[in-house]
Design brief:
By secondary structure, this protein is mainly alpha-helical. The chain has one domain. About 70% of the residues lie in helices and about 0% in strands. It is built from twelve helices and no strands. Helix 3 packs across helix 4 and helix 6 packs across helix 8.
Length: about 325
């Protein structure tokens, strides 16, 4: 009777899960159609037909690849501190797998799940530490993103009400994150954690997770190093978007290209918003946020389209994901 009850309960859950997946793909399709209809014909001409500065677009591609490699190195630092025996080459391979699969998973952080699974299969005796490292690495990555947004928005004297709100929220989140890291690094030894192991059933697992999160208390330079590398990654991503703008508009409307500072005011908050698990890889939502935030900057020319830039940037991300998939498939261990 118990097995029958469990099967009857699992059927509604499976139906609900399937319904949610279908709903998310419907939302994605509606967003893409809405974006396509919103883009004026002039902007489509710039994206498809107008001459482009391919050297700038190639530079944007190189910068995106570099930012990904720095992200993999940041994760490797954490794995080394947790004594997870994975080589840098394997971290790069698995990292590129996460980049490739993030395009089909919900939210831009979805690829981290596949990355954690692939890494855990390499070191089965350290699964808990690996999954915890992925969560911590993603949290520090998001902290760096909101810090870049807060700093960039603070450099402008004239902001819209919406951007002022985003700046305030970014500073609050940045302070909370930095204070949390500082507390763990300096006061982690004083946190009582022994009681966690006494929790029925889940105690030992939770204890290993907490111990992994407390790794910064025994590696004092690890947190600053990871934060600085995160700041560098998101700075490079924003610069890549600027080069995309140059590649699209330098020959057509050079006076309409937003400045580097204006890119920093729009891109980091948009990338942070696109991490919400609404569409696969943040597709559609990232483009909408980038366009909306550029429109909030009064000094940006009306001849400039954030949607066009974001669409080309998406194409570069897809190309990087394709490159990453090839690297993962062709650089596997020969003895596997």
């Amino acid at each position: 009777m118990i097995s029958e009850d469990n099967s009857s309960n699992s059927q509604p859950r499976s139906a609900v899960k399937l319904g949610m997946e279908i709903l998310k793909w419907i939302i994605l399709g509606a967003v893409i159609i809405w974006i396509a209809k919103k883009v004026p014909q002039r902007d489509w001409d710039i994206l498809i037909h107008q001459p482009k500065s391919w050297s700038y677009l190639a530079l944007a591609l190189a910068i995106v690849i570099l930012s990904n490699i720095i992200t993999f190195w940041r994760w490797k630092q954490l794995l080394d501190a947790l004594e997870v025996p994975i080589s840098l080459l394997e971290v790069v391979r698995i990292g590129f797998l996460g980049v490739a699969l993030s395009l089909v998973s919900v939210g831009s952080v979805g690829g981290d799940v596949f990355k954690a699974i692939a890494a855990a299969n390499r070191c089965r005796h350290r699964k808990t530490e690996i999954f915890t490292s992925v969560l911590v690495d993603r949290a520090i990555g998001l902290l760096g993103l909101v810090m870049v947004a807060a700093l960039a928005l603070s450099l402008s004297k004239s902001l819209s009400t919406q951007l002022v709100t985003i700046r305030t929220a970014a500073w609050i989140l940045s302070c909370i994150g930095l204070l949390g890291l500082l507390a763990i690094s300096l006061l982690g030894t004083r946190f009582p954690t022994a009681w966690i192991q006494r929790i029925p059933m889940a105690g030992p697992l939770l204890q290993r997770i907490v111990q992994a999160c407390m790794i910064f208390r025994s590696h004092r330079l690890l947190a600053p190093s990871m934060v600085l590398s995160s700041l560098l990654v998101h700075t490079l991503a924003t610069l890549a978007c600027w080069f995309v703008s140059l590649g699209l508009y330098q020959r057509n409307a050079p006076n309409s290209i937003p400045t580097v500072l204006e890119h920093f005011q729009a891109i980091p908050p948009a990338l942070a918003a696109s991490t919400l698990p609404l569409t696969p890889g943040g597709l559609g939502m990232q483009e909408l946020w980038i366009d909306a935030l550029f429109r909030q900057i009064p000094t940006v020319s009306p001849d400039y389209s954030g949607l066009v830039m974001a669409t080309m940037f998406r194409a570069i991300l897809v190309l990087v994901a394709a490159i990453g998939g090839v690297i993962y498939l062709t650089s596997g261990r020969r003895n596997s």
